[in-house]
From TrEMBL:
Pathway: Glycan biosynthesis; trehalose biosynthesis. It comes from Natronorubrum bangense JCM 10635. It is an enzyme of class 3 (hydrolase). This is Trehalose 6-phosphate phosphatase. Its EC number is 3.1.3.12. GO terms for molecular function: metal ion binding; trehalose-phosphatase activity. Its cofactor is Mg(2+).
Length: 284
């Protein structure tokens, strides 16, 4: 983990990475990246700018796009259109090449998770504004609108119930004002991104943009050959670049759709002769 650098400081590397490739795989997180964070998870929606810029990129022949979300697959698919590939439930379900794959161990643990979920519904019912999101393969306890004094209680109850009923097969992790309950298996967004990248032709550069802790494994996956872009502050991250907000995501997508796709078309042998100053074509 290092301190991600503002993307404007990394533009020469971004340009040379794209120039050395012939295709781009662009993977995007949803909440906090394409969609600003809001109190009610049902109300989350991509900004119109992000939606339009993603649609443009998704229509580019040299670009493959994918959404990689903690939401259930069907849910995130209903919120943003364009990409051919979607991963839901932090990579436990993956829609690509016309079919949907579900992690087999996660599938086996659905009934145990359902028991935990039903118990939590009862136990947490008295907590003001606490809400549960049933994503079948995982579940989310939302505490964003819960009074801050009550959040530790929610956390304790959640952990205790998962310990008691999960039988070691389930675990609790944290996200932005949420507690996530899922199967205790070493699988996450990074594994899903690796599978998606394996479908790509040679000379494809991966870029991943995300904002939360579960995006870190995806940053680790892409940073081998490509670039991770974290949406947020300068906290340590496996991503090498950062931008401040979903508003800036649109600027990155616009740049990739204009300057970026042109760079992909440059002959690799010319890339060594290219310097950043001769490639200005927009902010970044
Ligand atoms: O991987 P993501 O696509 O970023 O999904 C992560 C979680 O996002 C959602 O929760 C977050 O966004 C909500 C709406 O802005 C916000 O109210 C909540 O506090 C955030 O944690 C989603 O509801 C979860 O299921 C996802 O796991």
């Amino acid at each position: 983990m290092t301190t991600p650098r503002p993307i404007d400081e990394q533009r020469a590397r971004l340009r040379s990475t794209l120039t050395a490739a012939s295709r781009l795989l662009l993977c995007l997180d949803f909440d906090g990246t394409l969609a600003p964070i809001v109190d009610d998870p049902d109300e989350a929606a991509p900004t119109p700018e992000n939606e339009a810029a993603l649609a443009t990129l998704a229509s580019e022949p040299t670009v493959s796009t994918a959404i990689v979300s903690g939401r259930a697959l069907a849910d995130v698919r209903s919120r943003i259109e364009g990409p051919k590939t979607y991963a839901g439930n932090h990579g436990l379900e993956l829609a690509r090449r016309g079919s949907v794959a579900v992690h087999p161990i996660a599938r086996k643990r659905v009934s145990r998770l359902e028991t935990v979920y039903e118990t939590l519904e009862t136990v947490l019912a008295p907590v003001p504004n606490c809400r549960l999101e049933n994503k079948r393969l995982t579940g989310t306890v939302h505490v964003r609108a819960v009074p801050s004094s009550a959040r530790p209680v929610v956390r304790r109850h959640t952990q205790a119930i998962v310990d008691r009923l999960g039988g070691g097969a389930l675990e609790v992790s944290t996200g932005k004002r949420i507690f996530e309950i899922g199967p205790s298996i070493p699988w996450g967004k990074g594994n899903a991104v690796a599978l998606i990248a394996a479908d790509m032709p040679p000379e494809t550069v991966p870029i991943y943009i995300g904002d939360d802790v579960t995006d870190e494994s995806a940053f680790r996956t892409v940073e081998h050959d490509g670039i991770g872009i974290r949406v947020g502050g300068d906290e340590p991250s496996a991503a090498s670049c950062r931008i401040d907000s979903p508003t800036e995501v649109a600027a990155v997508l616009d740049w990739l759709g204009s300057v970026g796709v042109d760079l992909l078309e440059r002959d690799v042998t010319r890339s060594n002769a290219v310097d950043g100053s001769s490639l200005d074509g927009g902010r970044l």
